[in-house]
Write a structure and sequence with these properties.
single chain, alpha/beta, Cytidine Deaminase, domain 2, 2 domains, nine-stranded mixed sheet, 12 helices, globular, binds ligand AOF, binds zinc ion, 5-amino-6-(5-phosphoribosylamino)uracil reductase activity, oxidoreductase
Length: about 375
């Protein structure tokens, strides 16, 4: 039996988990509420990899009162010794009588064993309450654990006539301050930001999260690191003085033969990570790139790139969400398209469905998913 009270506590646990949106990577966001009847005894969320898991924080708040109580956790409690000891064991030792887990942990070192551990110790287990919401909380962690690749968000800023820059390449700024702050938040929830060398050469972007521009983050845990910056750069043309290289934490993906060349060696000497992958006529082998980023522990990837790389991602059907910021301006018919995607007939059109539509100052933000 699941009642409204149980659902409300799990919803609260989801809210707590979301506080870790800028800080838990590569770990998932997890929240926990410990309650007896309608009384909350403890609350916790996972803040940072290496630090206490959500259950441990909630248990320490509840103290001895946890005996006989119910725990609501957004993810199956872990059963393994990772950077921290198993939460399932801690719940058993605290005497918790009933555990609600929204979803299984797809991590192969857990995946059901946490729930088994609880059941074997005589704890009642109820699985699946608000499961859909819990999966949506960690789309990247779930996807990486299940298929080894990050969840991909493609960001675009465009005009009313679907242009993303002038013919000269000039593009600052199409959208207003509110949309740009929203992009900062989007970067901050991402584990990595991918761009192409064309964008590096044309715009010299930093692709960093600037805390001051994030604005008020409410009760979220402070971002604990910059997202990894990733550059698709077949011939290692990224200038050693490029802004994006400052502060480190950069991986460049070039063509394998490029690895041995002088420009690549110079970048490696600066501490840049260099990876050789396959390139095809129309650009980088994106699947190989995504596999590699999955191995690096990237859960949520943000693609902020020019028309070539954006076109490749769309064409290869590798975008999970498209975030389109549209400004109420015309950039004119000589402006650059958001994506290079030459299509012949209406039958080739690439259809999307709108998940969310919002006004940000004068601009609108659409979040879309493949239809
Ligand atoms: C939980 N509660 O709050 C989180 C869990 O290296 P560790 O010890 O931090 O373990 C990381 C793994 O633990 C992570 O990959 C995921 O399977 C699980 N995360 N589990 O019971 C939590 N964050
Ligand atoms: Zn745990």
């Amino acid at each position: 039996m699941i009642d409204a009270q149980d659902t409300a506590f799990m919803a609260r646990a989801l809210q707590l988990a979301w506080r870790g949106r800028y800080s838990t990577h590569p770990n998932p966001r997890v929240g926990c509420v410990i309650a007896r009847g309608s009384e909350v005894l403890g609350e916790g969320w996972h803040e940072r990899a290496g630090e206490a898991h959500a259950e441990i924080r909630a248990l320490s708040q509840a103290g001895p009162d946890a005996r006989g109580a119910t725990a609501y956790v957004t993810l199956e409690p872990c059963s393994h010794f990772g950077r921290t000891p198993p939460c399932a064991k801690a719940l058993v030792e605290a005497g918790v009588a009933h555990v609600f887990a929204a979803t299984k942990d797809p991590n192969p070192s857990v995946s059901g064993r946490g729930l088994d551990m609880l059941r074997e110790a005589g704890v009642r287990v109820t699985e699946g309450l608000l499961a859909e919401e819990a999966v949506r909380l960690n789309p990247g962690f779930m996807k990486r654990m299940n298929v080894g690749r990050p969840y991909v968000r493609l960001k675009m800023a465009a005009s009313l006539d679907g242009r993303t820059a002038m013919a000269s390449g000039e593009s600052q700024w199409i959208t207003g301050a509110e949309a740009r702050r929203d992009v900062q938040r989007l970067r901050a929830i991402s584990d990595a930001i991918l761009t192409g060398v064309g964008t590096v050469l044309a715009d010299n972007p930093s692709l960093t999260v600037r805390r001051g521009e994030l604005g008020d983050i409410g009760d979220a845990t402070e971002p604990s690191r910059q997202p990894l910056r990733v550059i698709a750069d077949r011939d290692a043309r990224t200038p050693p003085g490029a802004t994006i290289l400052q502060g480190g934490n950069v991986q460049i993906y070039c063509a394998s033969p490029t690895l041995a060349t002088a420009p690549a060696q110079d970048l490696a000497a600066l501490g840049v990570g260099l990876n050789g992958v396959a390139w095809k006529d129309n650009g980088i082998d994106v699947r190989e790139l995504l596999d590699s980023l999955g191995e690096l522990g990237i859960n949520e990837l943000l693609v902020e790139a020019g028309p070539t790389l954006a076109g490749t991602f769309i064409n290869e059907r590798l975008v999970d969400e498209l975030w389109l910021y549209q400004a109420p301006v015309f950039l004119g018919s000589t402006g650059r398209p958001t994506a290079n995607l030459p299509l012949e007939s209406m039958a080739d059109k690439v259809q999307w469905k709108v998940l969310d539509r919002r006004q940000l100052g004068e601009d609108q933000r659409l979040i879309l998913a493949p239809a």
